[in-house]
């Protein structure tokens, strides 16, 4: 099966010796929305620029629809890139900006005008078509940048923190638009961000990166449910991690007692929402004793702070309607229950 995009062992070492990306493997299906997520400097933008062709690769291969594009200049690749600062030409009109990519392709004027008209229409930019790009709001500029990227009908749209310059409200609105647009066009989107909620909310799959390597490639829910490394467990969601010693398949011995879970390793990862308040306890459940140190109820969710027997304080989320949740008072002993199926064991 032909993938829209395939990265095989891709690596980048900058001339000064900085290793920005190593052994990056990824296969992306047509129409997928994939986010690159990770802390500043982990190599997200470098990888995106290598896909676009703005940066040479030092190792590996990049294939688009099965074709090796590793040595192809950017303008010949079937990709478009959208930048955080939009990179519009301030003195050009909206129409000229949008037409720019088609001008490079030396397309006949009638065909160009037709494509530009259609895309301006789609992005609701008709009323501004003849206005200079620097006389527009952030949201409008963002739309022009998208229109300019899409008018050339790329196979893959590469977006480098495209919403980073927008305020929170506008950001949410454009996030929704982006998602709808992607579904409608069926184009593959590769989206770089260091905003977790954005990556998890928008994409079909997330590539979590740290220090130039891929830590995990999963649908957003899986990152919460089944982190594969300590880095991911630390970075995504709110997990309690309990270290121990492996004592057989799916079980570790810890200072808080025996814990079982899915997977293999010496570190148990428990998501905040996996804890339950269990006065009696259910057979098969992991039980952890502690003391309630704080509680707040926000709407239907109760946020509890619990000090465990090893003195660490953890956050627990519970449904406010849980029997007993209202009556809990800080200072009192509490027993937490966890279904072993919700626990993941990884290597520390
Ligand atoms: N031109 C360059 N020359 C040398 N090192 C570079 C160059 N560009 C980036 N780097 C380094 O490569 C690493 C990866 O940078 P990159 O910009 O890809 O990270 P990023 O994950 O996109 O970060 P951010 O979220 O801050 O944009 C960093 O250590 C960075 O300092």
TrEMBL record:
<dbReference type="InterPro" id="IPR050093">
    <property type="entry name" value="ABC_SmlMolc_Importer"/>
</dbReference>
<feature type="domain" description="ABC transporter">
    <location>
        <begin position="5"/>
        <end position="236"/>
    </location>
</feature>
<keyword id="KW-0547">Nucleotide-binding</keyword>
<dbReference type="InterPro" id="IPR013611">
    <property type="entry name" value="Transp-assoc_OB_typ2"/>
</dbReference>
<dbReference type="InterPro" id="IPR027417">
    <property type="entry name" value="P-loop_NTPase"/>
</dbReference>
<dbReference type="GO" id="GO:0043190">
    <property type="term" value="C:ATP-binding cassette (ABC) transporter complex"/>
</dbReference>
<keyword id="KW-0813">Transport</keyword>
<keyword id="KW-0067">ATP-binding</keyword>
<dbReference type="Pfam" id="PF08402">
    <property type="entry name" value="TOBE_2"/>
</dbReference>
<dbReference type="InterPro" id="IPR003593">
    <property type="entry name" value="AAA+_ATPase"/>
</dbReference>
<dbReference type="InterPro" id="IPR017871">
    <property type="entry name" value="ABC_transporter-like_CS"/>
</dbReference>
<dbReference type="Pfam" id="PF00005">
    <property type="entry name" value="ABC_tran"/>
</dbReference>
<dbReference type="GO" id="GO:0005524">
    <property type="term" value="F:ATP binding"/>
</dbReference>
<dbReference type="InterPro" id="IPR008995">
    <property type="entry name" value="Mo/tungstate-bd_C_term_dom"/>
</dbReference>
<dbReference type="InterPro" id="IPR003439">
    <property type="entry name" value="ABC_transporter-like_ATP-bd"/>
</dbReference>
<comment type="similarity">
    <text>Belongs to the ABC transporter superfamily.</text>
</comment>
<protein>
    <submittedName>
        <fullName>Putative spermidine/putrescine transport system ATP-binding protein/spermidine/putrescine transport system ATP-binding protein</fullName>
    </submittedName>
</protein>
<dbReference type="GO" id="GO:0140359">
    <property type="term" value="F:ABC-type transporter activity"/>
</dbReference>
<dbReference type="GO" id="GO:0016887">
    <property type="term" value="F:ATP hydrolysis activity"/>
</dbReference>
